[in-house]
Design goal:
The protein has a domain at about 10-50. It contains 1 helix and 3 strands. The chain has one helix at about 35-50; strands spanning about 10-15, 15-20, 30.
């Protein structure tokens, strides 16, 4: 079973290329000459976002809030 998450991605065409960003993940954006390349780079940024979670500071309690 695949546990997938769908995130909205905003794509903006501009002078010099395409910008793709994920508003739900602060700092996850990418720019490239074309849309497929911008999306490829954005996917790498999203993967990095989820794999580089900050370590928990000792004495901190972590809870998960369901929304």
């Amino acid at each position: 079973m695949c546990r997938c998450m769908k995130l909205p991605v905003h794509i903006r065409n501009g002078r010099g290329g395409v910008q793709a960003f994920c508003p739900d993940l602060p700092g996850c954006s990418a720019s490239a000459a074309n849309e497929p390349e911008a999306l490829r780079l954005l996917r790498a940024r999203v993967d990095e976002y989820f794999s580089s979670r900050s370590p928990v500071v000792p004495g901190t309690r972590v809870i998960h809030l369901e929304v």
